[in-house]
Amino acid sequence: MKLMFASDIHGALPATERVLSLFAESGARYLVVLGDVLNHGPRNALLPGYAPAEVAERLNTQAARIIAVRGNCDSEVDQMLLKFPMTAPWQQVLTPNQRLFLTHGHLFGPDNLPPLATGDVLVYGHTHIPVAEKRGDIFHFNPGSVSIPKGGFPASFGLLDGNKLQVLALNDQRVIAEVAINP
Length: 183
What we know:
Number of helices: 3
Family: Belongs to the metallophosphoesterase superfamily. YfcE family.
Largest sheet: 6 strands, mixed
Strand order of the largest sheet: 3-2-1-9-10-11
CATH class: Alpha Beta
CATH architecture: 4-Layer Sandwich
Order of helices and strands: EHEHEHEEEEEEEE
Distance between the termini: 14 Å
Keywords: Hydrolase, Metal-binding
Protein name: Phosphoesterase
Number of strands: 11
GO molecular function, one term: hydrolase activity
Strand content: 25-35%
EC number: 3.1.4.-
């Protein structure tokens, strides 16, 4: 199964349009949205192209193919604009070989792990910093942010294709980080 990951959109319409274009080209079955979808958050400046209502409209065109979790900047009011559920603090996706534990990263994350089995994957956003690596017995994967990248990284998204997790630059799809997740 091929999955695409986007995190920390923060209401940025240009980033949303780029994500949806790449999603259409990717051949991914689902788009996993890791929270902070519509609001910029109190610590972030308003982004160029900040248009949360339009972001909701664009994402709603793919509602049947979106799996989403709630971020720390998301609210009940946001759900009123979105046609896909996004208020769960975490979700799980089972692949033939492992479990992907999906969360935004502010409740569960690298410093507060949920119960995971050997070979499982913690998939999170929140930090806006790309990660694709094995730590101990589990894999950590953060696709970075599509709108407000941090740590000197470009805006980015993620892909799971077979047993390979990749973080790719949003503009040129250059590989930023990758890890093979073996059964």
